[in-house]
Amino acid sequence: MKPLIKGPALNYPVKVFATGFVVLTLLSIPLFWFRFICQTSLSVRMPDDAKGVRIEPSSLVPPEFENDPNVVSHSIVSASIPEEKGLLSLGIFDYFFIARFPGGRRSNVYFFHSDRDCMYFDKKTGQIVHLYTEKQIMPDKTTKEKIVQLYIGPEGVSETPASTVGRFISPIIDRGWIENRWVDIRWKKLRDLILYDKKLRCFFKINFNQRTVIKGPKLGEDYRRHEPIQIGILKKK
Amino acid sequence: MYALIKREIQDHIAYFIGAAVFSVVFIIISFSLISRYDSRNPPVFLIGLGVPAATIVIFGICAMGATQMYLDRTRKISALLSTLAVSRNRILLARIITGILTILILLVPLTIAAGILVRIFTPPVPMFTGMVFEISITVYLMAFACYCIGLQTGWNSNPLTPSLGALFLTCIFIPLILIKGFGVHIVVILVLFIVASLLRTWHTFMKTSL
């Protein structure tokens, strides 16, 4: 049998690089913990006054405006050290409690309150599934809860899983819509949801009350450099 | 090759039995934990049982690699086998395949059980889609990386170095999961670490005079 690895793999420099990588990996882990402890300790012990700075007037505005006696409030520049996330900054906690949690950057579930109140992107069908309960007033003036189940695709909205509504491929939705959803439900009128599909390169406006989807024009090839990554309040760095 | 693997399995049968037993233990713990789970009154006993069991398994995998190499070094097994027209490449390859088999015996039933549990007990919302795969692949690679640490520390005639060295390095290495979590980043690091470790082991094994 011929040797499985010969020549370069058995060279001394290869062993040196392999050993170097192993040592580097093993050494970087305790160094990480050392940095983590120092950073957390510094953040905890640092007085609150030292965590931020506020300059007023900022001296960025021309003096003729800044010194104008009619100025109600002067320009301000402020900066502060962001709150230390502590253990949540570690990868494993980020994975379970932020990234993979409903609404997280790596989750297809946009929100999940119960089996009857949730919204998620079903990769298999390519549709966004939205479940919520609606209170119905019956003829005898009693109220009854009705579970609404909507399947949303680029071509429309359906109450049953149907291929006629088409398929989304890589949708991103307006996160602000989820935050305002409670207010909308109280007023019994969900506002329109804006959605962008990275692969279809189109914006969509979903009207839950009329059960319609309005498709925007396709982004041209010239706009490849300007790919939307988030809709609503920007949270990515 | 088959004979070499068979001999390795026979020499380290305790690890195979241990892997099968721990696999069953973990499956029972997982089923009990999920079926009895109550957020107000979590089954602390089962969680408490799982943590030391996982620790024993990790050190066990590492110990297997260290034992394989240490026994070879002290008992001159590969020196003997080399006289029987068996190449050293094959000896090491059979050893590594045995290590992989142990890891598979331990983790494959557990992965299947995890997949079944996710299907049975989670709501029909794709909340855990991809998580079982990501966590499993990371755990497989981490287990193999620990085995590789054992292989590297085991090639020593002093009995203290393989045992304490492997224990110390595993303690340092395991928290990498805490730091990086699960996903592509840790997979890349682990794959590179495994490749570097195997190259180093291979080089050391091939160049050492028997």
What does it look like?
The complex is a heterodimer of chains A (237) and B (210). With 237 residues, chain A is of the alpha+beta class. Among the domains of chain A are: 53-82, no CATH class; 114-223, no CATH class. Chain A is extended. Chain A has helices spanning 12-45, 63-66, 91-99, 175-179, 181-186, and strands at 52-55, 77-80, 109-114, 117-122, 127-137, 143-153, 156-158, 171-173, 193-197, 202-207, 212-215. The N and C termini of chain A lie far apart (54 Å). In chain A, the strands form three sheets. Chain A has a five-stranded antiparallel sheet with strand order 3-4-5-6-7, with no helix packed on it. A four-stranded antiparallel sheet of chain A has the order 8-9-10-11, with no helix packed on it. Chain A has five helices and eleven strands; from the N terminus they run αβαβαββββββααβββ. Helices cover 24% and strands 27% of the residues of chain A. In chain A, strand 10 and strand 11 form a beta hairpin. The model of chain A has no long low-confidence stretch (mean pLDDT 82). Chain B is mainly alpha-helical. Chain B has one domain (2-207). Chain B is built from nine helices and no strands. The longest helix of chain B has 34 residues, at 88-121. The mean pLDDT of chain B is 85. The A-B interface holds A 1, 3-5, 9-10, 14-15, 17-19, 21-22, 25-26, 29-30, 32-33, 90-96, 99-100, 102, 106-109, 112, 115, 118, 120-123 and B 87, 89-90, 93, 123-127, 129, 131, 152, 169, 172-173, 175-183, 185-186, 189, 192-193, 195-197, 199-200, 202-204, 206-207.
What's a quick, concise take on this entry?
Chain A is of the alpha+beta class and 237 residues long.
Q: Output the helix-strand order of chain B.
A: HHHHHHHHH
* Largest sheet geometry of chain B: none
The total of helices of chain A stands at 5
Strand content of chain A: 25-35%
Counting copies of identical and different chains, the oligomeric state is heterodimer
The number of helices of chain B is: 9
Structural class of chain B: mainly alpha
Name the biggest interface: A-B, 40 and 39 residues
| Uncertain parts of chain A | none
Task: Give the strand order of the largest sheet of chain A, numbering strands 1, 2, ... along the chain.
Answer: 3-4-5-6-7
Are there runs of chain B of 5+ residues with pLDDT below 50, and where?
none
Question: What Rg of chain B, in angstroms, do the CA atoms define?
Answer: 19 Å
* Helicity level of chain B: over 70%
| Integer count of domains of chain B | 1
